[in-house]
Write a structure and sequence with these properties.
Two copies of one chain form a homodimer. Chain A contains eleven helices and 15 strands. By secondary structure, chain A is of the alpha/beta class. In chain A, strand 5, helix 3 (92-98) and strand 6 form a beta-alpha-beta unit.
Chain lengths: 340, 340
């Protein structure tokens, strides 16, 4: 039954689904950053018209979903499934955003790798003949994440230099059978990799070994080298994690090349925006993919993209109990002209 | 591309995957209940050899997974994917249980509907040609759930009559292309349904409308009536939710019949075990399916089963903010002789 399987972790889609539309909605800080012209909507404040940050996150994700349906000219009723997740306890960002959608719903938890996970499953259920159109979405919000994972914002805690800044952002992609371009051609699903990192202020180091593991599997399974892709975007490893990933590959004699970048590095101007090691959160790779990377594909800047969102599968409770931080990374290959 | 789709929410598997093995591991209270002879392993205490309840939950799930691989005579290295989720913040029950598995991992959050969600996706990726064997797993733990969702156990809080008791239990099912029986033949994926219930001590009432919505869609999409199945098991609606579901169907003139039951009702002896409205938690339907329902199928007691785990997609934070409780239910049809 594994006729679509290449190697241990990668599958090749027989009839690659295309991306009918993508939409991104972000907060004011992200709208001040280097990618500001790529986002569909930048909110003037972090509340998105709501009274709490958790409700704000759901409102933002709901807006990205509605915008994406509009852009794809597909009403929610024509979608077969929504795949969605976020960082909030019990993934309530997604549940409350989608509760009025009236679309069959699969809730995911992949931490900051969620956008890749959602794209992977959406692509498989379309290619598998179960669906014609699916939405893949994810979100994060700086304020809801800070109080849940770290400290009350009012406390004004110092941030360590290796810390990343949780992106206030949501991304939505609608995949459709038959296209249009770009197409999802391959999916490499990550294993959980735990390198023993226990510093919750250094997620880049915790997730880089997972990115290395998945990318290495992708290259081995497909027979491709990094230069097959015009762009390889991990996310959200940040500056430190990105360097660690390059270093891990260079030990194997593999150069990730100039096409390699990271969503957490792209989204902020580190020095000017005081974001230390870069952006993070499910919304980081989700909004950078939906707002920047897919746009660049359609404009011919990088016709072949390997999108590899990374996640840290920990909680404040596991860290308090002395556990190390397991990471995961799922890679999705996108191609404007898969026939070439 | 929707050649395997029946109606709006249901898909029919072309080559129904079978269940190679199932395993269940539970705590002492569940091991004292009416299903005690159906579980594979009953722990003498709730710690499962660990020092915290969260670690205990991961250890229990890891044990169920290992036991299931043994029973299926399939080492983890022969599995293509694991689909797993739980109730803990950031789903750490699953992540830490599976971090040494070395199997491509999809993390799910469907609250107590997780076992149905995992089975649904595992069945689709096998039938779709992406995998030969997948594990679907879920867990919950009374002690980790109480302190996360409710009150410190030491406080000894009173429980309302409508409250359910979170099951300490884990279930694992390994699906395999081609069989053996029973086979997964249909999957009906639920939409999020919010009936406006705000009482966190009455989850049965919050989830019953979602079960009604999904079951109604399943019957409409497949043209089947409740009596097509020898058993229909929702879970975990408990006594109250079960009665609400019967009532909702009776208003349509549909009798769910004697074959209808609920995993939350089956697992405890309510009066003797002081569990009020019944069991709950991802581990409730997961362990009842893996330990009791699948055994009954193989023994010929109910050759056709509709398994419909139900989840409440809320968090303590959303309830504190006055939100109502959205529910979801995914239905999976299992058949010992799907050709008949």
């Amino acid at each position: 039954m594994r006729e679509k399987r290449l190697g241990q972790q990668t599958i090749a889609l027989k009839n690659p689904p295309g991306i009918a539309a993508a939409a991104s909605v972000v907060g004011p800080k992200e709208g001040d950053g280097p990618l500001k012209s790529d986002f569909d909507f930048i909110s003037e404040d972090a509340y998105f018209g709501e009274k709490t940050w958790e409700k704000a996150e759901s409102a933002m994700l709901k807006q990205a979903f509605a915008l994406c349906c509009d852009k794809a000219k597909l009403p929610p009723s024509s979608l077969d499934y929504i795949f969605s997740g976020d960082l909030l306890n019990q993934c309530v960002g997604s549940s409350y955003a989608m509760r009025e959608s009236n679309v069959p719903f699969f809730g995911l938890f992949g931490a900051c790798s969620t956008m890749s996970e959602a794209l992977s499953l959406a692509a498989m259920v379309i290619d598998g003949g179960y669906a014609d159109a699916c939405a893949a979405t994810a979100s994060s919000h700086f304020c809801s994440a800070e109080r849940q994972f770290r400290l009350p914002l009012e406390y004004g805690g110092q941030r360590s230099p290796t810390a990343q800044w949780t992106v206030t952002g949501a991304g939505c992609v609608i995949l459709k059978a038959g296209g249009p371009a770009p197409y999802v051609t391959h999916v490499t699903t990550g294993k959980i990799v735990d390198a023993g990192i226990t510093d919750v202020n250094n997620m880049g180091a915790a997730m880089a070994p997972a990115a290395y593991d998945t990318l290495r599997a992708h290259f081995a399974d497909t027979g491709r080298a990094p230069d097959f892709y015009d762009a390889i975007a991990t996310g959200d490893l940040g500056n430190l994690g990105q360097d660690i990933l390059r270093e891990l590959f260079s030990r194997d004699g593999v150069d990730l090349g100039l096409g390699y970048t990271d969503c957490g590095v792209l989204i902020y101007s580190g020095t000017a925006q005081d974001t230390h090691a870069g952006g993070s959160g499910c919304g980081c790779s989700a909004s950078v993919l939906s707002g920047h990377l897919l746009k660049g594909m359609l404009e011919g800047r990088w016709p072949r993209l390997l999108f590899c969102a990374t996640g840290a599968l920990m909680s404040p409770v596991t860290s308090q109990q002395g556990e190390s931080i397991p990471g995961i990374c799922h890679a999705v290959a996108l191609d404007v002209n898969p026939g070439n």
